[in-house]
Design goal:
377 residues; 4-stranded mixed β-sheet; 11 strands; 60% helix; binds zinc ion
Length: 377
């Protein structure tokens, strides 16, 4: 998920909003206004709306502090944190490196809910100082705002500690299993399975509440459950995928007998005799026995069909000097990350300055399929 509105940086971490956040912010302020109006009908409209907006802003700050806590612990533990994005269902810290050990994962995961809990207790404490009689309702706007913020932060802390990976509680669970078994992959698979179980409970409970109680909060719960199910499923899949790549280098996976085409061929011949015939997407372009560039269907599409006969492959190819390349001793997982971050499908591989082969996404996928097949008995 990428931020569409950039808010700036805190401690070098860029903070941004996803569009979906605005819908939720609007709904929160709307329901807050409704809440304040019901609890204290004697308030004027102006007071109700200002209280709702101030509460909404402080809630946003509290969410951000929760996410910052995750990110700052991650960074203190040596991980790279790029950005925090707030979206409809809360915040997301984009942490670029893998967690180094179970202890780091544990502290990183628990820092968020811990921050929310401290904030919740803090808001209730200030409400008490501002004249809130515990157990009773307060009639002053300041106390009403503080109470709502206190309870919502405590709820946030509790909700996030539900042990469904990738919720914070699920990450804590994963860290604990990891610490006991010393097997990070198994820990993720187990935590993701618990996450799927929790997600199903959310969905069923939410739908039940929606259909039996005609309660829209139920629909919301079902929606969160569905999101969680999707997230835990894809983390499960990712681990299985990564397990096959772990410890492998680009040299172990890349293709050495990559498809080639002569640079002086016309695009028409290239399309008819190579591209369509082979089912391959990327060809290395040869000039005088040397690989000088690459060509894919994308480069061909940039030329009008009538001009394919007169246009040579080498005139539209992407020269190697302009293509992102990779060395043969790079870890395969890192290569995959580079491809997905830059949205590219293949990387020419070099070893000691010499062109050695090509690593492509489809090839990695085939490698993993065969790897998985061999694992099965
Ligand atoms: Zn969190």
């Amino acid at each position: 998920m990428h931020a569409q509105v950039k808010l700036g940086r805190i401690a070098g971490i860029s903070i941004g909003l996803h569009y979906s956040w605005f819908i939720i912010a609007f709904l929160i302020v709307l329901s807050l206004a409704d809440h304040f109006h019901t609890v204290t009908p004697e308030w004027s409209k102006a007071v109700v709306w200002s209280a709702a907006i101030v509460t909404g802003v402080l809630f946003f700050v509290a969410l951000l502090l929760h996410e910052l806590a995750h990110s700052l612990v991650a960074r203190a533990r040596g991980m790279r944190v790029r950005a925090i994005t707030l979206f409809a269902l809360g915040g997301l810290s984009q942490i670029e490196s893998e967690t180094p050990d179970a202890k780091s994962e544990f502290w990183m995961a628990i820092a968020g809910p811990l921050t929310s809990a401290i904030l919740g207790i803090g808001f209730l404490g200030i409400a008490r100082l501002a004249g809130w009689p515990p157990g009773g309702e307060s009639k002053t706007p300041v106390v009403a705002v503080l109470l709502w913020l206190g309870y919502i932060n405590l709820m946030l802390a509790i909700f996030n500690m539900i042990p469904g990976y990738p919720l914070d509680g699920g990450r804590v669970l994963r860290a604990v299993i990891w610490g006991i078994t010393h097997d990070a992959d198994r820990a993720t698979l187990l935590a993701a399975q618990v996450g799927q179980g929790v997600a199903f409970v959310f969905i069923l409970l939410g739908l039940y509440r929606f259909f039996v109680g005609a309660n829209f909060g139920g629909l919301w719960l079902a929606f969160i459950g569905w999101f969680l199910l999707d997230a835990s499923r894809s983390s499960y899949f990712e681990v299985e995928l990564m397990a096959g790549l772990r410890g492998r280098r680009v040299a172990d996976i890349m293709e050495r007998d990559y498809p080639t085409v002569e640079g002086h061929f016309s695009l028409q011949d290239f399309v008819n005799e190579y591209l369509l015939r082979s089912g391959r997407r990327c060809f290395m372009v040869m000039q005088n026995g040397q690989v000088t560039g690459l060509i894919t269907a994308n480069e061909v599409k940039g030329v009008d069909r009538e001009r394919w006969e007169q246009t040579s492959v080498q005139s539209v190819m992407r020269p190697l000097s302009q293509v992102r390349t990779i060395t043969a001793d790079t870890p395969a997982i890192q290569a995959l990350e580079i491809m997905s971050r830059n949205d590219i499908n293949q990387l020419p591989v070099f070893a000691n300055g010499r062109f050695e082969g090509v690593l492509s996404r489809s090839h990695i996928l085939r490698y993993l399929q065969i790897h998985a097949e061999l694992q099965r008995r």
